[in-house]
């Protein structure tokens, strides 16, 4: 059967006479709902919708089949006891009628009302039955609430047990005698049997702790024992020693559990494994012991970083200032390079003609002195030209792998003589520094220029320090990040103010007196560094000296041994030399020097004219051509000439370094201005190599013929 509805209606079964009608009317007058049923099956069906009580006429049930009604009454839930009012005939009470006793046994909660009954009696009995029914409903509500609370409690207990089981700390709930009620795996890891340390005979051996005065605690002062006495103990650290295992650091707490009267009814013990925390504390203690040293070390690092940041800031500020001057310096460089090139050609003519003139003048001391002075002036002009080309980044560099430490060792004597006895030279060079890819002669000249500048900045003497190392390049340099071969020159001289420092690398700018400097020393060093693919930095302050720093490109091959100076011209057979130069003055000087060496010289003023001579069958043993010529460069001429005569040796004379990359890799070069001896060595070397390679060729091959000394124009 379904749960009876909460209703107070009266179901009436009195199918004979007017009892059903009268009872319904009486109940309706006092506000009690009533429902008259025509027969017993209808009554049983109405019970499914709920009823507050039943009013049955004795004659309706005496002989009826009560099996359905009895079954419904027997299946009531425990809280329900449906009241039944049985309307009997006078004198047919239960104490006198066996049938009434039988109905009482079958229907349970039966009240007898004799007929005829007074209306007040019926209403009073009905109200009494309904009050009892209401209490049944209230009991049902309390039972439902109790079941809900029990279900909630079961859910809560399940959640609590799940929480306790998965807690990373050990938890043990005890009764007032210290017996375990509930514990989790983390607790049973230390105490598998659930017995707390204060109740174990070996508790003091396995669990060790001390009080604030350093005294070892006994079992009666353990957190669990204190909690059972009503004391709260939290955060007491123990060393737990299990047989055969490493000691474990734990933190144990005990909290009393009190009943409604406030008395201790049990206790809660909590164990936390703090081994990792203790290990971290020990590591921290070890770290603290060395903290002062580390702080000092870190302070030094931070100071170095701060210095580096300041340097980078200064570099950026300097770079911004240099960017504003880039266009001016670029224009100056182009102008300087062009002037230097033309000046180079003029010096070429001067040096060549002076050498030829010397051979033709009679030996005389006065003449020799004048000639020597003229040669010295021309050579100084050549040096000035090289500095101009260095600033313009157009000098003819011969980069090679250079051992910077070895180069400085070889320069020590030269530097000491150049700066004089009042300047102390210190060379700080690391032997393990990687070789640099640089022209060694130009680098020596640059270091010498810096040393002379430093000497002039230290009129009362001082210290000149040259350092060789491998250090990171500054961000503002424009080079890819990394370590580079490094050369620095530092002096303890007067230094420079900001205005002077900003113009220091400009060509012809000098703070020295008239006749004491050209103003090209720093310009040349700057040009050498940049043209070589490195970086340059100049820093100075008044009274703090100056520092010049060079970062040079790394060499991919080992450092080369120093080359011997060029040997004097070897004796070679006279040859036919085709000289090509658009400058008549230069061509005349070169032609005269070659003719003086015994060669037959053919002169051409352009590449087109030279090619025309070769096409017409002019026999030539060597082609000497200038690089910079209008219409056709010396490189283009060499390519065209070799197309006609692949074995023809070509010597390229130039003062430029910015030749097309890779095109002239197989062309030997003769740097302007050159002397007759340099010309003789270069031509002799080429002619000798050609003779060796053509020794196995058939006579008459190529454009060669038996030479005859002279000049052909």
Automatic annotation (TrEMBL):
GO molecular function terms listed in the Swiss-Prot or TrEMBL record: phosphorelay sensor kinase activity
PROSITE patterns found in the cross-reference section: HIS_KIN (PS50109), PAC (PS50113), RESPONSE_REGULATORY (PS50110)
Domain (Histidine kinase) ranges: 338-556
Coiled-coil spans in chain: 277-329
Origin superkingdom: Bacteria
Reactions listed under catalytic activity: ATP + protein L-histidine = ADP + protein N-phospho-L-histidine
Ranges where the Response regulatory domain occurs: 576-687
Span list, region Disordered: 692-713
Stretches that traverse the bilayer: none
Top-level class of the enzyme under EC nomenclature: transferase
Modified residues (4-aspartylphosphate): 626
SUPFAM superfamilies named among the record's database cross-references: ATPase domain of HSP90 chaperone/DNA topoisomerase II/histidine kinase, CheY-like, Homodimeric domain of signal transducing histidine kinase, PYP-like sensor domain (PAS domain)
Positions of the PAC domain: 234-286
Keyword entries, A-Z: Coiled coil, Phosphoprotein, Plasmid
InterPro entries hit by this protein: CheY-like_superfamily, HATPase_C_sf, HATPase_dom, His_kinase_dom, HisK_dim/P_dom, HisK_dim/P_sf, PAC, PAS-assoc_C
Record's compositionally biased regions (Basic and acidic residues): 698-713
EC number assigned by the record: 2.7.13.3
Protein's recorded name: histidine kinase
Organism whose genome encodes this protein: Azospirillum oryzae
């Amino acid at each position: 059967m379904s749960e009876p509805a909460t209703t107070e209606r009266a179901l009436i079964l009195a199918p004979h006479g007017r009892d059903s009608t009268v009872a319904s009317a009486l109940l309706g007058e006092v506000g009690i709902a009533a429902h008259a049923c025509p027969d017993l099956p209808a009554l049983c069906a109405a019970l499914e919708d709920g009823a507050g009580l039943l009013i049955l006429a004795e004659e309706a049930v005496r002989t009826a089949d009560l099996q359905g009604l009895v079954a419904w009454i027997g299946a009531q839930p425990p809280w329900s006891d449906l009241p039944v009012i049985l309307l009997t005939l006078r004198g047919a009470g239960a104490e006198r009628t066996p049938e009434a006793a039988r109905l009482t046994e079958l229907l349970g909660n039966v009240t007898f009302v004799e007929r005829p009954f007074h209306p007040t009696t019926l209403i009073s009995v009905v109200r009494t039955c309904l009050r009892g029914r209401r209490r049944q409903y209230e009991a049902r509500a309390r039972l439902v609430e109790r079941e809900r609370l029990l279900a909630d409690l079961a859910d809560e207990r399940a959640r609590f047990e799940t929480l306790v089981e998965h807690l990373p700390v050990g938890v043990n709930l005890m009764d007032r005698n210290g017996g375990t009620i509930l514990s989790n795996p983390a607790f049973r890891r230390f105490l598998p049997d659930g017995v707390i340390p204060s109740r174990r005979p070996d508790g003091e051996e396995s669990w060790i702790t001390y009080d604030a005065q350093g005294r070892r605690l006994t079992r009666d002062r353990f957190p669990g024992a204190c909690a059972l006495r009503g004391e709260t103990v939290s955060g007491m650290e123990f060393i737990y020693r299990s047989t055969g295992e490493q000691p474990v650091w734990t933190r144990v707490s005990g909290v009393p559990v009190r009943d409604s009267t406030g008395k201790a009814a049990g206790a809660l013990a909590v164990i936390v494994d703090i081994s990792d925390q203790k290990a971290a504390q020990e590591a921290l203690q070890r770290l603290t012991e060395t903290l002062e040293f580390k702080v000092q070390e870190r302070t030094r690092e931070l100071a170095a970083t701060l210095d580096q940041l300041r340097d980078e800031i200064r570099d950026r500020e300097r770079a911004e200032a240099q960017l504003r001057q880039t266009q001016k310096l670029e224009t100056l460089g182009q102008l300087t390079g062009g002037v230097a090139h033309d000046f180079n050609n003029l010096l070429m003519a001067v040096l060549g003609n002076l050498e030829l003139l010397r051979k033709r003048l009679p030996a005389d001391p006065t003449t020799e002195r004048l000639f020597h002075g003229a040669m010295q002036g021309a050579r100084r002009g050549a040096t000035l030209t090289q500095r101009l080309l260095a600033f313009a980044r157009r000098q003819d560099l011969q980069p090679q792998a250079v051992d910077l430490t070895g180069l400085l060792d070889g320069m020590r004597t030269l530097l000491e003589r150049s700066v004089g006895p009042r300047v102390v030279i210190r060379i700080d060079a690391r032997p393990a520094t990687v070789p640099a890819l640089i022209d060694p002669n130009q680098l020596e000249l640059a270091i010498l220029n810096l040393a002379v500048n430093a000497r002039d900045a230290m009129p009362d003497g001082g210290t000149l320090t040259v350092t060789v190392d491998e250090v990171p390049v500054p961000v503002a340099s424009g080079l890819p990040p990394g370590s580079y071969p490094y050369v620095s020159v530092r002096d303890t001289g007067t230094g420079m103010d900001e205005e002077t420092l900003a113009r220091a690398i400009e060509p012809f700018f000098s703070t020295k007196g008239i006749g004491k400097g050209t103003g090209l020393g720093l310009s040349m060093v700057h040009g050498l560094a940049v043209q070589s693919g490195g970086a340059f930095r100049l820093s100075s302050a008044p009274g703090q000296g100056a520092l010049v720093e060079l970062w040079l490109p790394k060499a991919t091959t080992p450092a080369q041994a120093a080359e011997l100076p060029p040997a004097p011209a070897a004796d070679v057979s006279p040859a036919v030399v085709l000289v090509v130069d658009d400058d008549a003055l230069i061509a005349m000087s070169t032609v005269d020097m070659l003719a003086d060496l015994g060669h037959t010289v053919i002169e051409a003023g352009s590449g087109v004219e030279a090619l025309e001579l070769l096409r017409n069958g002019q026999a030539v043993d060597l082609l000497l051509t200038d690089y910079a010529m209008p219409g056709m460069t010396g490189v283009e001429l060499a390519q065209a000439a070799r197309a006609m005569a692949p074995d023809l040796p070509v010597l390229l004379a130039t003062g430029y370094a910015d030749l097309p990359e890779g095109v002239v890799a197989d062309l030997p070069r003769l740097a302007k201005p050159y002397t007759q001896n340099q010309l003789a060595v270069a031509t002799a070397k080429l002619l000798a190599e050609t003779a060796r390679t053509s020794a196995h060729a058939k006579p008459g091959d190529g454009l060669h013929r038996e030479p005859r000394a002279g000049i052909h124009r």
